[in-house]
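Tutorial, part two.
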Amino acid sequence: MFLEKILYATDFSETSASALGYVIQLRTAGCKEVILVHVLDTRKTEEVLAEPSGGDEPSGEYERQIAGRILNNARQELKTIERSLEEEQFLVRTFLVNGNPSREI
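Running the prediction step on this input gives:
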């Protein structure tokens, strides 16, 4: 088998979802393991956190809440993808990292 392990990096877009279908097809070609990666793009996170809260939260609390939501959403999305791959009998290793996607991947 020429390809037993594949890296699947996702940004949770429709394009990434389409690519997942191709990854799943590789199972029939003998692929056994998927390295699942999502990079929390710190540039985008910083843009979101720079927006004013519009509320009465103490300084820093708004940022912590938003950062926590972003992280939890990414974890949930990754878990959903991980389960889908495991149902197709792939061994899955999942990574969630912060940074610039082009550098981290």
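Residues 33 and 91 are 5 Å apart (CA to CA). In part three we will examine how such features are distributed along the chain.
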